[in-house]
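TOPIC: backbone geometry
CONTENTS: sequence, structure tokens:
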Amino acid sequence: MTASPEPSPASGLRAKKKAKTRSEIRRQALRLFATQGYESTTVEQIAEAAEVSPSTVFRYFPTKEKLVVSDGYAPEVVEAFRAQPAELSPLRAVREAIRTAFAGLSGEEVAQRRQLQELVLTVPELWAASLGNIKQTQHVLAELVAERAGHAPEDAEVRSFTGAVFGVLLEVWLRWAENPDLNALEALDQSLAHLEAGLPL
């Protein structure tokens, strides 16, 4: 049996440089979107601000929409969900997973996530582009919940549960987009707690 080769220092440096370039392109794009609007910002302007070529922007983000719309669910939330104690209910496990995954975000990371959500919710083409991601995330959540609860992902109970959780997420996203000062993590946890309690009024 042959041991896997250790990654070379050069490959590690290349990966770090790529991650830094990708982050800077997105950072500059979001800055321009905030100052002059998504529709009015060109890829050429983003490339100039990030000090790269337009072809480099497209290498990291194949379309302009991909600068805003992510490519799927958040793996850190999935990992945190699977790590929750077996005795927790699915909804409590969702609450704890979100808290664990996002509690350590820096202020800059939180602000960037809020801006991304605002763009998705207010720019029609970005909302349309994000629907596939939303469906995939719902599918992943259904599988995780079904696994924990001992149901099949296509069961009506699982679909209702996932729909209720996504309803809460959307309501908090909309409030956050309108109110930058909202503590979104706290608001989300409170709303999920209300759902967990049976939505008493």
Notes: The mean pLDDT is 89. The radius of gyration is 19 Å. Residues 111 and 180 are 8 Å apart (CA to CA).
